[in-house]
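To whoever is covering the structure queue this week,

Two jobs came back overnight. Logging them here so there's a record in the thread.

Job A:
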Amino acid sequence: MFRFLTLLFLPILICGSCASTNPSNAPEAVPEFTFFNIVDDQPVMRTSLAIEGNVVFLFFDTGCIHCRNEITLISENFSKFKNATFYLVSQQDKAIVTDFMTSYGKNLQKKPNVHVLLDKRYEFLSKFQPIQYPAIYVYGPDRKLKSYLDGENELGKIIEAINK
C-alpha cells in the first residue's frame, strides 16, 4: 500500500517542486512594448534597449513601500551593479513618478544607464506578467531572461541577479 501511494503521489511532488523553481510567468525573452521616457516623452521600445550588458526592468508603484525600499537600496548601492542598463517602469502620472524618484532614487537620476519610463498604455502587466511589486527582470544582451525577482529583496540577492 505504501509503495502504491508513493508511486501515486511522486509525480505530483515532482511537478510541484518543478513549478516552485520558476513560479512566475516572466517572459523568457523581452516582449515587444512601447513605454515613454519620463525626461523627453520619447517612446522606448524593445529595439531601443541597450545593446551591451544586461537589461534590467524594474516595475514599481509609487505607493508601494517595498518599491520605495528597494529603489532606495539600489540607489544607495548603485556602484555595485556592473555592466547593466536599468529601465524603471511605472504606470503612474509623470509628476508623481518624478517626486518618487527625487525622494527615493536620487542617485539614479543622472546616471546614463538608468532610464525612468512611463507605461502610458498599461502594457507592462499583460506583457511581463509580474506577480507583485516591485518586480525585477534581468535579460542578457541576447534579450533572454536571466533572472526574475519580485517583492522586496535583500541587496545581495539583487546584486547577484543583476550581475549574473
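Job B:
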Amino acid sequence: MAMGLSSKQTVRATPLRANRAAGRVNVARRALVARAQKVETKGESGSLEYRMFFKSECGENMSPWHDLPLYNEDGTVNFVCEIPKETSAKMEVATDEVKTPIKQDVKKGAVRFYPYNINWNYGLLPQTWEDPAHANEECGGVFGDNDPVDVVEIGSAACEMGGVYPVKPVGVYAMIDDGELDWKVIAISTADPKAANINDVEDVEKEFPGELEKIRVWFRDYKTPDGKPQNGYGYDDKCLNKEFTMGVIAETHEFYNKLKSGARANSEELSLF
C-alpha cells in the first residue's frame, strides 16, 4: 500500500496475516503511517510552480527526505516514489527547498522530461546522502553527487507519485554521471506478487529475465538524445549483490547523519529541514 497517495486520501495500513513476522511489518508500517498521512499539491501540474508537500498526522508539512525513516523493523527500507513507471516528467525531491517537496526538474527555465518513458518506478531512499566530499577509490576516485540515493523499483504495478513503499533492496549499480557517483539501488515492493521469490540480485534474472540489462542500458543512454555522452558504471558495469547494496545504504545513511549533525559541510545549501 502506498503512503501519502493524494491530497484527499488518508493512508490506512493493509491487514496482514497474524503471524509474528507479519506483526513486525505491521508495527513498522503503522509507525510510518503516523508520520505521513497524506500529500498536498500546490500549483498546476507541469508548471514551474508545482510542488507536492508531504503532511504529518496533524497537518504540518514534513520532509520526505528528512522526516521519513529509512529502515523498517523487518529489514526492508522505505522508498519514496518521485516518478511512476511509464511516465516521462522528471520529478524530484527539491533538496534545496524547506521541507523538500517534490517538484519537476527545471533546465533553462523550462520543466524537464525524459526523452522517453522510464519503465520502472523511480525515487529515493530517505535519510541517505551521496557525499560530494567522499571519493570512492574503487570507482576511480569519483565523488558523490550530493543527492539522496536513487531507487529503481522493478515491480509490476505503477506506484503513486509521493507514495511511500516498503521495498526489498536486492542490487545496486554504481552509475557515474558527469564524473559523479550516482548509486542506483534495484528494489522490489514487498506488495509485488514476485517479492517473496526475489531476495538477491541473481533472483531478478530468474523472475525478470533481461531486466537488469534493460536498466543498465536505459540509465546509460537516456541523456544521449540531447547530445550528451553515455553515462558510465563502476565495478565493471555489474549490478552488485544484496550484501553490497545494504552496505551502500548503510554508508550513505551515515553520510546523511553527518550532514544533519554538521559534521559534514553543507556546501551546496541543501535544506536540512
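Note for Job B: Residues 3-36 have pLDDT under 50 and may be disordered.

Please reply-all if you pick these up so we don't duplicate work.
Q.
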